[in-house]
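JOB MANIFEST
job_type = single_chain_structure
chain_count = 1
residues = 129
[input]
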Amino acid sequence: MMIAWLMAASETAKVLQPSTAVDTTGQLVSMMISLMVVLAIAIGLAFLWRRFMPQSITGHHGLDIVASRNIGSRERLLLVKVGQRYVLLGATPQSINQLAEFTADELPEALSAVKQQPVQTWQLWRSKT
């Protein structure tokens, strides 16, 4: 009787094992399809949010960075247009300071005053030694 029971159990295990593997594969495929659907919905909602939300909510408030220049490893000069005025800002990791303010008419004059002949770094270093 015990032997018959063991034989029946082994036959049942042989029959159930392939169907369990197929069921696991089916569950994995179903899970991957569900994941792709959720990701497609999230990407679609993000696109619609950026496309149809007003600019005042998304952060554009009439500020434009016209020019930016790194002057050190963590220091920058920024020329920002605010409405009809231009503001020159110095930005460091600790603070942001207003350096100058220009109107649209004053800006070309200020830029031409700043332009100068480039000094070769080698010549500058050699003159100091």
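[summary]
The longest strand covers residues 63-70.
The mean pLDDT is 76.
exit_status = 0
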